[in-house]
Specification:
Layout: H1 3-17, H2 22-29, H3 33-45, E1 50-53, E2 59-62, H4 67-72, H5 76-84, H6 96-100, H7 117-132, E3 136-140, E4 146-156, E5 159-165, E6 171-175, E7 179-184, H8 197-200, E8 214-217, H9 225-229, E9 234-236, E10 241-244, H10 249-258, E11 264-267, H11 269-286
Helix pairs in contact: 1-3, 2-3, 10-11
Length: 287
């Protein structure tokens, strides 16, 4: 089957059935999961808004408003032409939030991958705060509300991460999925004088890497779509493992922590050991 025909059939399946798992698409088109991942990544690069959903029943779905373009199309080129006419699309489909953000505050621009549901509302609040330079009152899972100053958004390894500082000038990173609420305040305060977000996220691109590849499994997660769509994580279908790198050990541990308790490191041993040490420290602090 030609690639264009296969990609068009993927879009038709999403337009008809809503959320469709990668394995379903693989079985339907009689191709490997890896081929499906590559097709979806290519569709994203061509401006077609596909969202990855997480969880056991995770999969892919078209962004609101794209379905009618796909249903009315007779080929992939029809879809690309329709999506390209942004002025004819509903405003929420445009990349306004990203285009109006200062370029220095969005370090990895995968603007077609937007959080869903309540997390999407939190995300939009953060975007507004970055534009207005106003502090936020945030509530993270299991924590009391706190006031932070957003410094930038990073999309890496399949999820959005907020870099921020607090009233004590302490820099921290928070995965978007851990935030339950965010409210913009009238406050505004400057980050530490020596703060450079580029340094904070430089482990992604730095030449000074500790490990070439980090390999891990997510046994309780089905289609971890966003990580694959972002192109930052490779998937080994035969072994059921994800991998990324080269990275520093510190970045690898912080990234795996943001994945939650389900991530199991296969290799390298130093990352597995550091992650275990972190988990033991957390248990000691909570005992």
């Amino acid at each position: 089957m030609e690639k264009e025909i296969r990609q068009f059939e993927i879009l038709q399946a999403l337009a008809t059935d809503g959320t469709v798992a990668g394995q379903q698409l693989s079985d339907m088109l009689n191709v490997s999961l890896r081929t499906i991942y590559r097709d979806i990544e290519e569709l994203l690069e061509n401006g077609i808004t596909i969202e990855g959903t997480r969880g056991v029943d995770g999969g892919y779905r078209l962004h609101r408003g794209i379905e009618h373009i796909v249903r009315d199309a007779t080929s992939l080129q029809d879809v690309l032409s329709g999506v390209g006419k942004t002025e004819e699309l509903p405003r929420p489909l445009r990349k306004t939030s990203f285009e109006t953000l200062p370029a220095s505050k969005v370090y990895v621009d995968h603007s077609m991958i937007v959080p869903l549901g309540s997390k999407g509302l939190v995300f939009e609040t953060i975007c507004a705060s970055l534009q207005s330079n106003r502090a936020l009152q945030i509530t993270a899972t299991g924590s009391t509300p706190s006031v932070i100053m957003p410094l930038g958004l990073v999309f890496a390894a399949g999820r959005w991460v907020l870099i921020s500082s607090d009233l004590n000038n302490s820099i921290s990173s928070l995965a978007l999925h851990s935030l339950e609420d965010a409210v913009e305040t009238a406050l505004s305060f400057k980050p530490p004088r020596n703060f450079r977000a580029e340094d904070f996220v430089s482990a992604i691109d730095s030449d000074e890497m500790d490990v070439d590849v980090v390999e891990f499994k997510l046994p309780t997660v089905g289609e971890y779509g966003a990580a694959l769509l972002a192109g930052t994580t490779d998937y080994d279908e035969e072994n059921g493992t994800f991998s990324f790198g080269p990275v520093s050990v510190d970045f690898a541990v912080r990234w795996l922590i943001s994945m939650g308790p389900d991530a199991i490191v296969v290799e390298p041993k130093i990352v597995r050991r550091k992650l275990k040490e972190y988990a033991e420290k957390i248990l000691q602090n909570n005992s």
